[in-house]
Specification:
This protein starts with 11 loop residues before the first strand and ends with a strand. The chain has a four-stranded antiparallel sheet with strand order 3-4-5-6, covered by helices on one side. It has two domains: 59 residues, Response regulator (Rossmann fold, 3-Layer(aba) Sandwich); 94 residues, Arc Repressor Mutant, subunit A, CATH 1.10.10.10. By secondary structure, it is α+β, with helices and mostly antiparallel strands. It has five helices and nine strands, in the order βαβαββββαβααββ. Helix 3 packs across helix 5. The chain is elongated, with a radius of gyration of 20 Å.
């Protein structure tokens, strides 16, 4: 249950517990699949491939993230409120996409900096604060503020 709150990838339990109540509890806890011992390697590989296929289908089917009136188009790299296009810089959009794709997860300033600047950069870590400020300014006229500042140096996307 704890892990499921932070990730959206498939979770497969591999276990020797094969009682019905164990299986039901595992699935209700957030598992996508539950494989009991003994199992064959071809079965394990087939199940992992099945979950990967399902994830690809799910990810391809949702090219637009919707949060109330706010729409984030991954393909066009556009932010829209109703029919109004909200212009963003490339890095502002990358930040919005990362946060909105992981709602309620808290990202530290360092994580966000490493995501936006994967290679050595002379840019200062304070740039994350500036990007968040600019995003908030762009959304302020619409009374939308989905980015919550977390005390101690982090940010979180909250659902509207």
């Amino acid at each position: 249950k704890y892990i499921r709150e932070f990730i959206s990838v498939p979770i497969i339990f591999l276990t020797a517990k094969n009682l019905e109540e164990d299986i039901v509890y595992g699935i209700q806890s957030g598992a996508d699949d539950y494989i009991t011992k003994p199992f064959s390697i071809p079965e394990l590989v087939a199940r992992v491939q099945m979950h990967i296929r399902r994830e690809v289908r799910n990810n391809n089917s949702s090219e637009i993230l919707q949060f109330g009136p706010l729409a984030i188009d991954k393909t066009k790299e556009e932010l829209r409120i109703a029919d109004i296009h909200i212009p963003t810089t490339k890095r502002e959009f990358q930040l919005i996409l990362l946060l909105s794709s992981n709602p309620n997860r808290i990202f530290s300033n360092e994580e966000l900096f490493d995501y936006l600047y994967p290679h050595d950069s002379e840019t200062q870590g304070r740039s994350i604060t500036e990007y968040v400020y600019q995003i908030r300014q762009k959304l302020k006229p619409y009374e939308i503020n989905p980015i919550k500042t977390i005390w101690g140096g982090g940010y979180q996307w909250i659902t509207l």
